[in-house]
Write a structure and sequence with these properties.
By secondary structure, the protein is of the alpha+beta class. About 25% of the residues lie in helices and about 30% in strands. The strands form 2 sheets. A 7-stranded mixed β-sheet has the order 1-2-3-7-6-5-4, sandwiched between helices. It starts with 11 loop residues before the first strand and ends with a strand. The structure holds biotin. Pfam families: BPL_C, BPL_LplA_LipB. Its EC number is 6.3.4.15.
């Protein structure tokens, strides 16, 4: 129902009006020993929202900002693949609330609707004195407003698409789908996650540009994901390159 958050069994919501970053709050809880798998930190506003690659994440009231504390019993390198399941969870939850949005996945973990970035995620790890590391999976979704992004990939809010989405409904939907993909990944591994992600992905089989840094761009055909979640890029000279971090752009054809 509107106005209420429903979480999977055993998960717990910690709601704030304003924090610096829900990822930072989740990390602090882990460090204090006050977080468990399934702790969800939600804030209506962030004063220091963080994006990938050291960027700032535009965080005024009206959009969704939340972070999940997870602790899958796998090595760090494998945990990163879960972010593809999380991207699927966001896309599926948005689609359920607004089918015309047609949410697509953009490598590595963005959600794009009608050519604009609607959601992004930031996965961070916190190592433990013993046992597997903790994961903090922060997800931001532009519902009311999107930033002006200049030369970067354009951003878009769900309201720009004529989709008024409730914060509580979306949070509940993402959590439910995330629990589904988490269970699927634990049971069947990365293969089903990768297959579902590729089905929703933008640009597979097409030319893409991957910006690796301010002065380094690779061009090629986006062939898919490898076992680790790296982007597989076939270059013109026949070389196949695996890219683990960068920003993807789709050149006009
Ligand atoms: C990106 O696309 O660059 C990732 C954006 C991640 C934003 C979310 S909002 C909730 C959580 N808290 C943060 O400070 N960042 C993430």
């Amino acid at each position: 129902t509107a106005g209420a958050v429903t979480l999977p069994m055993g998960w717990r919501l910690i709601a704030h009006d304003a924090v610096d970053s829900t990822n930072a709050v989740a990390r602090a809880l882990i460090t204090k020993g006050a977080a468990e798998e399934g702790t969800v930190v939600w804030a209506r506003e962030q004063t220091g929202g963080r994006g990938r690659q050291g960027r700032v994440w535009h965080s005024p009231p009206g959009n969704l900002y939340h972070s999940y504390v997870l602790r899958p019993d796998v090595p760090l390198a494998e945990a990163a693949r879960l972010s593809f399941g999380a991207a699927l969870a966001v896309a599926e939850a948005l689609e359920a609330l607004c089918p015309i949005a047609d949410p697509r996945c953009k490598w590595p973990n963005d959600i794009v609707c009608h050519g604009g970035k609607v959601a992004g995620m930031l996965m961070e790890t916190v190592s433990a004195a013993s046992g597997p590391p903790w994961l903090v999976l922060g997800i931001g979704v532009n519902l009311k407003t999107a930033p002006i992004t200049g030369a970067l990939f354009p951003a878009l809010a769900m309201e720009d698409l004529g989709c008024p989405v409730g914060l509580e409904d979306l949070l509940s939907g993402i959590a439910q789908r995330l629990a589904y993909w988490l269970a699927k990944w634990r049971q069947d591994g990365f293969a089903p996650v990768r297959a579902a992600w590729l089905e929703r992905a933008l640009g597979v089989g097409k030319p893409v540009e991957v910006r690796l840094g301010p002065h380094r761009t690779q061009r090629g055909i986006f062939q898919g994901l490898d076992e680790a979640g790296c982007l597989v890029l076939a270059e013109e000279d026949g070389m196949v390159r695996l890219i683990s971090a960068g920003d993807v752009f789709f050149p006009p054809q």
